[in-house]
Structures are given as structure tokens and as C-alpha cells.
Amino acid sequence: MRIGAVEAGGTKMVLAVADEKMNILKRETIPTLMPSETMEAMIRFFQAHPVDALGVGSFGPLDLNPASETYGYITKTPKLAWCDYPLLPRFREALGVPCLMDTDVNAAALCEAEMGAAKGLKNCVYVTVGTGIGAGVYCEGNLVHGLMHPEWGHMLLAPRADDPMKEGVCPYHKGCLEGLASGPAIERRWGVKGKDLPPDHPAWELEAHYLAQLCVTALMTISPEKIILGGGVMGQSHLFPMIHKETERLLGGYLSCVKDVSSLIVPPSCYPDSGLIGSLLLAKKAWEANQ
Ligand code: ADP
Ligand code: ZN
Predict the structure, then answer these.
(1) Does the Cβ of 272 fall within 6 Å of ligand 1?
(2) Alpha helices in the chain, H assignment, sequence order
(3) How buried is residue 268: exposed, middle or buried, by Cβ count under 10 Å (0-12/13-18/19+)?
(4) Span 208-251, pLDDT tens digits
(5) Per residue in 141-195, pLDDT tens?
(6) Ligand 1 center to residue 194 CA distance, Å?
(7) Which domains does the chain have, with CATH numbers?
(8) Cα(217) to centroid of ligand 1, in Å?
(9) Is any atom of ligand 1 closer than 6 Å to the C-beta of 194?
């Protein structure tokens, strides 16, 4: 059996073919251009490397309601050319194999839960802190969908009074998590890219504060057994101990079951392939559902 995966991002599409043991046999990255040409290139790849099932982990927002007429569409994305694009239906029509789609971050959460940092656990959240902020939520052994899918990047935070940036960068909410703590928020606030700020810059203490607010909210809502933080900004690994300390401070001794924050809030084990491997796991699920 061969399974295929697409990790669909706003700047690039990562494609892979693997065997049933998840060994990646072929992998290709293509730029995300206009939908018609990008789709054609992706379909050509899977025609050259046929698969028995396909999993797609995509940037969102997505319509993931199987009862909806636009199931499997990318919906109102700021990447305007891809607005209302029937990504999953196009793959289904072209390849004629079972296909399953989820958000890129839900796919990453699935990967980490099945074979990574949260292996053996039934509850975890995967958060990517990059150009945007997104979270995949895995609860009681299932990826969470519902009215739509989790959109934690737009979780409202309490801006800190000493934050030098007067307004967050999210065009919808200003002071949401993405508006205050994404890569572009760091760049807007300090006038330089995060990767060019030294570890002792005050940027990181403020960043850790906002990410700790996220962690506390996560703990108080879905009670994850692991909070996995990935994405470009988390390449600043010195953020982890700062987030641990600040999360403990904000918890204020509540949640006595939390004994060791440093083993609760961790980097992904499969980064940067969590989303791609999670998409392969979605393909496996699609295949199994058709047996
Ligand atoms: P994307 O979210 O676009 O898929 P990334 O997860 O790499 O991609 O996130 C890109 C964002 O993260 C940019 O805003 C970039 O400035 C920031 N970033 C990337 N690498 C680092 C780093 N080492 N330290 C701090 N910020 C970084
Ligand atoms: Zn927002």
C-alpha cells in the first residue's frame, strides 16, 4: 500500500508518498501559486507516484462539516486566490482514492499524539507560532471539530500595560494571540525580525507572557496532558523555560496536579514534519475507513 500526504501552506505545498509503515519514499516541495497551476502540479506528482489514499493537512479556515455542500473547501482565507477553493473535492476527482482533510495543525497534533511528544496520551494541543498562530486540538483520542475547527490563534488575550505596541496586528481583533504574539507581531513591535533579536532582549519576556496566557487558558479549558509549541518563533528555544516560569506564575498555585510544567509544555518531536506525517496518518485513516 502507498499513502500520500499534502501539507498545504500559504507559501509552499509539501507532498509525500509513504509505505504503510510511514517510511517516506518520495517527497517534493512546490511553491503555492495560483490554485489552478498549483493544483495541476500536485496532481501530476500523484499521477507519477500513485497512492491508495491521500491525507491533506491544510491552512484554513476549512469547511470540515461532512454534511456541508462545501465540505473540504478552503473558506474565507486572507490568501484571496484560495478563498472558497474546493481543495479536497479536486483531489478526490483527480485521484479517485479515499481522501481525508484536516487543518495543518490538527494533522500535526495527530502526528504528535500517535507517534511524537504526546504518544500514549489522549489529550494534547499542538500550537504553531509563526506567520500566524494556529492550534490543533486532540481530545479524548479524537481531533476536535465542531462548528468549524479550533481557531486558537484568535483567542483573545489581555494585552500587557507595558506592551510598547499599541495595537496587535490581527485585522479582526487586534489583541488576539496572533495579533500579539505571531512572528509579524514581534517584528511590528520591535522593528526587527524575531530571529535578529538577542536572547536577552525584552521581546522574549513579553512573548513568553503571551504564550503563557495561552497555556493557562489551554489548561483551564481542554485540560491537555501536553502542550506542544512549534513554528518558526519557537526556534528561539530559550523561550521554553521562560514560558514554563510564567505559566507557573499565572497559574498561581491552582491546578495542583501540574507538578512539572517543563514536561507539560514541550517542543514537537517530529518538527518540522509533524504536519506532513499527520497528513499521512489522515491518509491511513481514509484508507481504513474504506476497507
Ligand atoms: P509559517 O508560519 O509561515 O508557515 P514559520 O513557522 O517558519 O512559517 O514562521 C515564520 C515566522 O516566524 C516569521 O514571522 C519569522 O519572522 C518568524 N521566525 C522564523 N524563524 C524564527 C526564529 N528563529 N526566531 C524568531 N522568529 C522566527
Ligand atoms: Zn485575531
Answers:
(1) no
(2) 35-48, 87-95, 104-115, 177-181, 183-190, 202-221, 239-251, 261-264, 274-289
(3) buried
(4) 999 999 999 999 999 999 999 999 999 999 999 999 999 999 99
(5) 999 999 999 999 999 999 999 999 999 999 999 999 999 999 999 999 999 999 9
(6) 8
(7) 2-102 (3.30.420.40), 117-266 (3.30.420.40)
(8) 23
(9) yes
